[in-house]
## 1
Amino acid sequence: MRPYILEIRYEFLSLLRMPRFAVPTLLLPPMFYIFFGLIMPVGRFTSAAAKTLLAGYCVFGVLCAALWGIGAITAAERGLGWLEVKRASPMPQFSYITAKLATAILFGFVIQCTLMALAVFAGGLHLEPAQILQLTLLTSAAAIPFGALGFLVGAVASPQSAPGMINLLAFPLAIISGLWLPAEALPAGVRQIAPVLPPYHVVEVALAILGRRGGEETGMHLAVLAGMTVLLLGAAAVAWRRHSAR
């Protein structure tokens, strides 16, 4: 267990000390929240709008942490030959993957705490302890499918192309899935695409937790998300096996 804990600690500290990753990852979701939730509305925004924005940007935060912290960093480490060094070392086989996922969860947690503080103290939103716990568990679990997508990018993209590929993934995923705007505000054609994207199902569950959706379809969203997670993990595993065989 100790090697896993040390690997997580050093991975988290290394990214925290990397301004080009830590600064935009930690500040972008709260900046969007402040602008769209606190500055644009006149006066205090409504509880319904506050909960909708909170759910979307919490999911957006862990999505960015997973795609950038895993996808871009893994591609860079692969290009530098760092993965070969890791494989040759006596470290546990899955400690590298575990550390990447845990770091995405930790960054997502920091972002979520920042967003909740803004919603409560600046937006006047009331959150029940059970809602905070459930939302935290959901966003932590969401790091798995998002992280699998990040590992897939890290396996197929070069260090130079990975940032561009992640930008092409992250922002369309956020917009189409309804993380920046409620799904109801999107064009009908876009809403038809959303159900095939993992972030859409995560944010729908988050909205149900915060009382913005009925809970009748929560089980369906979780089941679809689980299936997508298995597919993404399988695709990432195949991509990494092909890379290792080269």
## 2
Amino acid sequence: MDFLKDKAAIVGMGIYKFSKDSDLTETDMACRSIRSALDDAGLTPDGIDGIIVYAEEDYDDIDITRAMGIGNMTYYGDVRWDGGASCSMVLRAAMAVASGSANYIVVVKSVNDASLKRVKKDWGELRSWPAAQETFYNPYGLTSDDGRIGMNVRRYIHEHNINSDSFGWVTQVLRENGAKNPNSMFYEKPVSHKDYLESKIKVEPFRELDYSCPVDGSIAFIVATAEKAKRLKRRPAYIMAGAQSMVKGTQFKTSYYKSSITDLHATEIVAKTLFEKSGVTHKDIDMLQIEDEFAPLVPMQLESLGFCERGKGVDFIEGGDRISVSGELPVNTSGGSIGEGNLHGMNHIAEAVNQLRETSTSQVKDVEKILVATGVFGPTSGLILRR
């Protein structure tokens, strides 16, 4: 058993609405989502003594705490790598409160992706990824995430003789979930498998409906010890385990330097670690909230997380029934990045909290344990949360 098991919990959550153009700075949205998270938990700014932010945004922990009137910080830090950072941020907060380094920690991420007003730190500070991109990928046409990840997915299709039309079942299910969610960019806009097949191919093998949806928005969580969680007003989401992985040959979102570009080895390690530390098995997991920047990543993760055999992920999603809200293993019930909006995994954690609180717009009955995994080709992180 891990020392962290059930020692910390998510006790507050705030979401600043997803939109195509927030007309706000990312700092402003971050503060608004933190304000909502404080209200949700029944706390005030002067009760917060720790903060974790995403490393690559232009705002930092000082900007946020000053704007919010938060003082007396005893723990602060940041985490990087887009989707791979989200569960890591919560894990770091859980470790801090469990060790006594802080009492109540804010975890926040805010982006203006849809409006293209996102401000990131100078790439010169972040070193390795842009150099590799500009030197080795861009000259050969791999100038975007869909091009780079598309290469991995095409190899996956080849290795397992997959009909790529089957990926559309992921899109259909996630858009059905998102259509019920007022925060979704696709509220009341479901699509059918036929719609998927009729959507244009943008970068082979990805169709238009394989893509996640960029958003402007912000999500904040408040993490505290399990003991303190009992005294707050909302049902906590207890953190049974957290894990992260960066394997040999990792490179952001591609990992072309691994022996196999379809091997999600970091995801496998995260899953193994989560199950070992939490003491639960695959049969105990009631649903998944997993990376879906592109639809094919869902069956690939079902395999790497251990819910089906290698090459059988497409069989698992066939028809959509098994991953639907009423299925044996519901996936991304808020709509996820494809059906709600892409806030880099933060909304996957938020939906897990909503499910455990029984406040989801696509509520699954009797949910007890949820596995969340963000970041696919690396770096990768994950959580197991329980009621």
## 3
Amino acid sequence: MFELRLHPMLVHFPIALFFTSVLFDAAGAWFKRDSFREGALWLLILGLLGGAAATIAGTWAEEAAEKAGIAESMIETHETLAFVTLGIFGVLLLGRLVLRNQFTRKTLVPYFLIAAIGLGTLSATGHYGGDLVYEQGAGVAVAHKVGVNVVEHTRP
């Protein structure tokens, strides 16, 4: 049961960090400030670390979700998108390191195109993850099967 709870807690970090990294890069390009570019680099690194942790926790949760009756094909699609997303942002980090975190007009356009694709796959990953929880009941269905009643509480 712990495995099912850990993954949803961790996924928000890479989502926020990757999006913020790209926003910092855009601000750095617009305002021509090195501090934004440096911040974007660290946000990207932290996003990859958070993404790795979320992926490991998701792998642990996969078996429990399958046992709860969640369609394996949906889980596999979510998992594949997560790996692709991490790969794309890993390529962005590698590119930054090769360029020594310095961009030119020639390198900035491809970087932002790849980043946009990465944000698209990140969004798709989150969408499929949300479907697993809210449409298929991953994590929620397990609670119902063990006799936990989920009721809405109101304050007196």
## 4
Amino acid sequence: MKRFASSLTGLFVVTLLGACSELQMLNSMAPQNGYEPTLNLPFDSAAGLRLDVYKPNGAVNAPVVVFFYGGRWQHGRKEDYQFVGAALAQQGFVAVIADYRKYPQVRYPLFVEDCAHAVVWTHEHIQTYGGSPQRVVAMGYDAGAYNAAMLALDPEFMKDAGGDRGWLRGMVGIGGPYDFMPIVAPDLRDIFGSPLHYPQTQPVFYADGTNPPLLLIASKGDQVVSARDTETLYDRVARANGPVEKVIYTDASHSKLLALVSHQLSGQSDLLPDIANFVNRVTRQPPAQR
């Protein structure tokens, strides 16, 4: 397990304790050079969904990372995650930050279907923005990690969106919920529908070894989403002989796991280098025949 360096100032630690102020701070400190943002591109006009693209300067056939944010499937906006797009672009990746519909407007599985449509749009259009449609990785945090995992583990989502799971060369999950039964919270019970179908809503249910490579990142210090979810999914995929890696931190909180992706905090841990190494590695390899 890894520790992250704790050399943050007291003021910055206090700022990070509030989710909204944290995101505002991280965005305000994100680098503004080295990449070109293209904002509010529609990818599902019927649902009113848009995405942002962060293109590294001079990018040609670069790896692509499609990022889905968290928020308990109820909160969040792509605009809040400029710092993620900037950090990924500075690693040489074309970053796509996509919105998806949330509860109570929609329930499972519609928010996962929205994410599948974002990947299909990326495959069809990302070459215009310097990315390679053959080098796409899905990445998510919190509920967004769940969405990305479902795309990687259940091929039906990409198929139903008019695409192919084979378009995904890998998936990165940060602090994701992958095995959260029994579902007892009233809002989650409403989001995920009939208890008879709860098993089919869990990413671990689809761990059959046919998935693209997974990089699962969690922390023992996460009091919001237990690292047990990551450990369980890792074990299930590994037992099925599927490609999977894990990084478990000892003391990062749930919010700090994502903050460590940012440019200004990336030097405090190996989290961003680990992600960059994984993306570069899996997008250079020929697609697995599964």
